[in-house]
Amino acid sequence: MSVSEQDIKMKILLAARRLFAAQGFDGTSVRQICEEAGANVALVSYHFGGKENLFNAVFSVFFPGNQLERYEPILHDPITGIKKLVEEVIRFRLSDPELVIIIQQEIFKQSSRIATIQENVFPVWNKMRELLEKGKQSGVFHFRSLDNVMFFIMGTLLFHKKTDYFLPILSDGTPTFKDMYRDAAVFILRGLGVPGTAEDYI
Q1: Cα(194)–Cα(187) distance, integer angstroms
Q2: Could you read off the pLDDT of 69-101 as tens digits, one per residue?
Q3: pTM score
Q4: Which terminus of the chain, N or C, has less C-beta within 10 A?
Q5: How many angstroms separate the CA atoms of 117 and 107, rounded?
Q6: What DSSP character marks residue 53?
Q7: CA–CA distance from 180 to each of 21, 32, 87, 177 (Å)?
C-alpha cells in the first residue's frame, strides 16, 4: 500500500470515529464519512469492505487494549498491575473521548456491534479480574464479592461522558491526568484494603 493510500485510509478511519461519536453508527452514512475524509465513496468498500468492517477497523486501530502484552512484565504483581490498568484506562478516556462515546452508545443500544466492543475491551477487564483474584488469594486485597468490586472499579474509571453536567456542584475545575490517576489509584487501592499512605501507592 502506497503512502497516499495509507493516508486516505487513516483519514477515513478518523472521519468514521468522529461521525460515529457525533451521530451514532446508524445515523452515519458511508457518503458522510467519505465527504468528511475527502475520499471517494468506493474507497470504504475497497479498504474496509463496508461500514460494519470500518467500525471494526476503528477499534482495531484506535483502541489501546492490544497493548496489554507490552505491559505484561509488570502485570504479574497485583498492586503494580492494578495501578497500571487504572493509569491506562484513565489515559484512554482522556485521550480518545470519541471512542469512549462510541462504546457507551453501542452498549446502551445493545447493538449487534457489541461483540466487537467486547472483543477489544474485555481483555482489559479480564486482566483486572485476574489481578484482583490473585491479590485476594495472596492476602494483599480484602473484599467479599469479586463481581461487586469489579463493578465499583469500572464505575470509578468509567465516569459518565457528560462531565460538564456536574460542573455546578464541582469546585476543583478540570482535573489533570496526573491528579485523576493518583486520586483514582488511591481510592481503589484503599478500597481494596491495601495499607499505607497515598504516597505509597503511586
Answers
A1: 10
A2: 888 888 889 999 999 999 999 999 889 999 999
A3: 0.86
A4: N
A5: 8
A6: H
A7: 24, 36, 9, 5
